[in-house]
Amino acid sequence: MYVRMTYATGDPAKIDEAIDGLVAEAPKLLADQPGYRGFRLFADRELGKLATASWWETEEAERSSDEQLAERRGQLLAPFAASAVTEVWEVAAYAPARAQAGGGLRLGRLEFDPAKVDQAVRAFQQVLPKFQAIPGNAGAAMLLDRARGRAVVGTLWADRAALAASRGPQAAARSEGVRAGGFRLLSLEEFELVLADYR
């Protein structure tokens, strides 16, 4: 599977307009596309950040849908976004998501030696059960850009309380995974889960 992620930043005072447009239109627009496997919308309303993730059965399905939807995506983000970046990732490993609106996302961006991609994936697979054992965990995924040696690891949490309570336990498991995978952790962010459409 493949995930198309869009990351947008802008004026926090304008974020709700963009959220309302995406909630109203995105699931229907995406569901009409062949190979669609789900959509998540995340927000940091305080800082003014939006992240979307649409899941696709194949790379071809992702590419075709992007050709159809890129213009409308830009229009929906325009009232809010001062900057927006869209990237496509390969799904390396995941635990099925169960979180619903009101849940939370912790997102880590990492780098690794592209020649050691198998080691990086094994390291995530080894710590995944530890993430799942933390109370309130509602899914996790590792997304890859193999050629550039980059990864995104996202963990979903049942609610904001579970997200907050998991910080210490996940930090310990994450440190183990970073060492085992030869990762460099570049950033760590948290978001509210605004919308989840699972297929």
Task: Characterize this entry briefly.
The chain has 199 residues and is an alpha+beta fold. Helix content is 37%, strand content 41%.
List keywords for this structure.
single chain; 199 residues; 5 helices; 41% strand; globular
Topology:
Blueprint: E1 2-10, H1 15-31, E2 36-44, E3 49-56, H2 59-77, E4 81-95, E5 104-111, H3 117-133, E6 137-145, E7 150-157, H4 160-165, H5 167-181, E8 184-198
Helix pairs in contact: 1-2, 3-5
Overall spatial form: globular
Supply the CATH architecture: 2-Layer Sandwich
Q: Which fold name corresponds to the CATH topology?
A: Alpha-Beta Plaits
- Major β-sheet annotation: 8 strands, antiparallel, barrel
Give an account of the 3D structure.
This protein is 37% helix and 41% strand. The longest helix is centred in the middle third of the chain and has 19 residues. Strands 1-3-2-8-5-7-6-4 form an 8-stranded antiparallel barrel. It has 199 residues and is an alpha+beta fold. The model has no long low-confidence stretch (mean pLDDT 97). It has a single domain, classed as 2-Layer Sandwich (Alpha-Beta Plaits), CATH 3.30.70.100. Helix 1 runs antiparallel to helix 2 and helix 3 runs antiparallel to helix 5.
